[in-house]
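Database export, one record per block. Field names are fixed; values are copied verbatim from the stored entry.
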Amino acid sequence: MEIYNISVRTDKRTQLLDITKIISDFILKSPIAAGLCLVYSPHTTTGVIINEAYDSDVAFDINLFLNNLVPKNNSYRHTEGNSDAHIKASIIGNSRMLPYSDNKLNLGKWEGIFLCEFDGPRQRNINLILI
């Protein structure tokens, strides 16, 4: 098992940041050529998804849908003003498990891995665990 901590910077309050290449680079260098990669974001206002990375409009549309589904301003009781971010992160989830072989992610042709930022911009950590 190998454990890595990756740091990325988001630049908007809500965005889907494609982190596929960052993760692929770690797997490429791993002495464990095949296994499972756990991608985990240890933040209560972020999520991790796998979706289409070829057309950036897909990420835009997912973000737009989530912002419409869970608006920033509602009658929330949490006083920090980021209840919408917590709710979105709860819906999306903060981890994904991916298979890899020959030191490459086994993603579909159009798939990518996205960090979903719901309370940025911020410096975020991503934990990778290769098993």
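Remark 1: The longest strand covers residues 2-9.
Remark 2: The chain is about 25% helix and 35% strand.
End of record.
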